[in-house]
Amino acid sequence: MKPTDVPGVFKKNERIFTKNPTDCKGTKVYSEHLITEEGTEYRSWNPFRSKLAAAILKGTQVPLTPQMHLLYLGAATGTTVSHLSDILTSGTIYAIENSPVAMTSLLNVSDRRPNIVPLLEDANHPERYRLFVPPVDVLYQDISQRNQAEIFTRNATQYLKKEGTGFLMVKARSIDVALKPKQAYDLVCSQLKTSGFRILEMQELGPYEKDHAVLRVSW
Question: Taking the complete model, does pTM exceed 0.90, yes or no?
Fold first, then answer.
């Protein structure tokens, strides 16, 4: 097991892993494999189930450190959130999800991971969780809606520190089915630039996720 450029993420045989917390030893969040080496248990991170894992394997720079605080929009059932919990061991993940069904699973994940704060809210209305979420170092969004860039901008304006980093997972078909994926990505980039963001990196996520790309941005 070898460390990667992302603190808290490890690689073995072309697969990436995060450390399973001691309190979660032997526990899976989804169908991931568990491997123990030198007394430490590692969880495999499936790039076909997590766009962030796909981004890391595709070479995207992911400047995370253990003490960072992160706002996650579109947390779903907690697959990626759980691995971020393994990485941000001294930080906090504020996980926004608007589906009560998905929230049930997310609550189960957060039950043994105290650095996850699950919030049943709509990311279209960031003012609704202002009392619970402080300024954050990282804004991560995975929401398949036409107004993805607008949602990201609203939340960044409220919560992302000026020196912070944003990750936007863009689903091309949610932007406009009439556009080719590259055109959809360029459209979102243009919208973000208009809102004052700098596009640091754009990486398509195939073959792990069809017609998806990750944008890494900053103010």
Answer: yes
